[in-house]
Amino acid sequence: MKLGVRTCAGKTHRLAQIVLLLMVAGAVQFAWADDDDSNAGGAKFSPEAAATFNKRCTACHTYGKGIKVGPDLKGVNDRRKRDWLVKFIHGSSLVIKSGDPTAVALFAQFKQQRMPDWTDLSEKQINDILDFVAIGGPDIKPADERNAELALPAEIELGRQLFVGERRLKYGSQSCRSCHGVRGAGWGGSLGPDLTQTYFKFQDRALTEFLRHPCFQWDTAGAGGRYLTAKESFAIKSFLRQAALHQSAHVDAAVPPSRPASAEKASLTAAPVAAAQQRSDRKGNAP
Ligand code: HEC
Ligand code: HEC
Fold this sequence. Notes:
Blueprint: H1 12-26, E1 39-40, E2 43-44, H2 47-57, H3 76-79, H4 82-90, H5 92-97, H6 101-109, H7 123-134, H8 153-164, H9 198-210, H10 230-254, H11 260-268, H12 270-285
Antiparallel strand pairs: 1-2
Helix pairs in contact: 2-7, 4-7, 8-10, 9-10
The protein binds heme C (2 copies).
One heme C binds near residues 76 and 80.
């Protein structure tokens, strides 16, 4: 059997555990939470508009990087009225021909280069593009790249719920807790490593990258290769940061700095307990 796992292939016991977990996962009902991936720290935009902008506009326009073939579009919503913009993007040739002074001046300034008429774009699509440009266009960072330091308490709580499986992940991935423990979050599976210290181990940027792909390739097979939404990823990252901070605060407070050895011991006791709990859980559920 060939398994596309990013883990040591020799551990057959572990693989048996994985297979068991997959069987369990297969029985799980998926609930599709309402979630918007195009939510950049509260600023909403249409992903379709972003895609159209990248595909059709960036060949001639920059956002904040100066003139290319046409004008820089940063701030275009401030220098022009919205209805003028919609009309101009939809069919600039007509607006120029009509003698509109702004259009004529632009046309003269850009050395008689003319923007194609975008007649196939609806008024709504053009408005969506302009909304996208208004809130930062290509400078908008994906929501999962926000630093976890900036998380609101509600986002950390969402991360906890997703991690432990109180709330389903949008694309139906297994909850993290079925394989991972985090101290202070109750029972956790022992197939994957304990993640209490993970935020410190990876740091923000690398953890963001890591969470873009599942720990196991097959986990996303049923969801067209999709894993976490950006919002879910950010929430889980924030939860892991809080868990790591809690842990270090706990150890710092409970153990005098002169005795680091016992700090280590204290932080190790939870894992075997979780593993034992998991084992008895399985026995209890066996048919
Ligand atoms: C082939 C090059 C080209 C492409 C592609 C292009 N534009 Fe333009 N755009 C121009 C030029 C050149 C101008 C200046 C006016 C003129 O000469 O027609 C312009 C002007 C504009 C203006 C007015 C800017 C201002 O300062 O008032 C807006 C808004 C605009 N374009 C938006 C878009 C959008 C949105 C797209 C993608 C759907 C796009 N453009 C694609 C070349 C292009
Ligand atoms: C089916 C079991 C399973 C599920 C579900 C799972 N993981 Fe994992 N995860 C693993 C295993 C096993 C490893 C270790 C992989 C290795 O050693 O190469 C791992 C590794 C990791 C690591 C790296 C830890 C380190 O210190 O190197 C992180 C971070 C992680 N998982 C996060 C998550 C998050 C977040 C979720 C939920 C969205 C999740 N995992 C869901 C099994 C799982």
